[in-house]
Amino acid sequence: MRRHESTQRPNELRFFPADEANAFSKVECARDFDRANFGLPVGGIAYWRSISDCDRKTALVNPMKAIVYCEYGSPDVLKFEDVEKPVPQDNQVLIKVRAASLNALDAYMIRDAWLNRLIFGLRKPRDTRLGRDVAGQVEAVGKNVTQFKSGDEVFGIGRGSLAEYACTLERALVVKPANVTFEQAASVPLAGLTALQGIREGKIQPGQKMLINGATGGVGTFAVQIAKSFGAEVTAVCSTRNVDLVRSIGADHVIDYTKEDFTKSDQRYDVIFDNVCNHSFFKRRRVLTTKGICVLAGMGGAGVKGGEAMGRIVGNLFIARGLSSFTNQRFAQYMTKMSKDDLIMLGDLVQAGKVRPVIERTYNLGDAPEALRVFDQGHARGKLVITIGEASR
To answer: Which residue in 3, 38, 336 sits closest to 188, CA to CA?
Structure first.
């Protein structure tokens, strides 16, 4: 995770990374805090009394199925209901969703936590729809859209992708490679972008040694394979049950954290891609080379909750980064951004067989609440994918 930047390029969507790209977009955060209008009593009253889609009782004109949540809580609050089919704005694309995948952001958004209420709605969720990763076919386009037409197969990032249809900006989509399934494509966007951009942050060079702590989640499985495609010698840290998995996706060395603490070894690494951040600054510094870089990519995913998550945030965003300013080693944070070029690159890597999306299980749209319940427990192997219609083709 990383602080907000003061400026943002107009064609760039940014997210705070943490494991499955558990991030709030800068645009969403800024807009939602502004709407809260806490400094004005009248605005505060209006905010408290504001309604969401769940409060609107008008008859549906063009209904579709979607996953919605009208209150904060566990995955039990999710409902599979009819909602109004979206209509694309001038710069948007309407997608017939064929597949979507879960990220930690989806699990975090529904939790009843004070930070969630400040950002997503004080009394109740303002945006009642879940899902960001999306793959499907273009159904319709706005009048200003020039890159896509009806029938195109695409993947990318869009709000409310756990539904039969979703709208998103033209700049948030790319063409799906023909030999990549919708399920595979839907597993790529947030996790793939977080892994790719984090590895770049580590400035890894061919032949250098890279350790990936937390190598079997959505981001971790992409990070192992992308690092290998960059020519790195990769050491993956995982549990006993995942040793064979990380070897199968290209890890040169594997450390089973149930049997060995990587911070106590004699090996030194040019880059640590830390997707868990469960070791102290001093322990990680010990296994970095003299000018090594530790990329703070995540806090352990959806399975890390409450005080433990806050402890890791404080220990890494403030303590580790602050102390690293006094050494030649660097503890780096970054913001995942939506980049067409990077999505195209990820698609090319998958198409070429250099990256294989790891999908633990697929679920039908109506079973998405159960999928999120499983995801919320942590320790997912790769991605959990939601299919809508005939996804695999």
So the answer is: 336
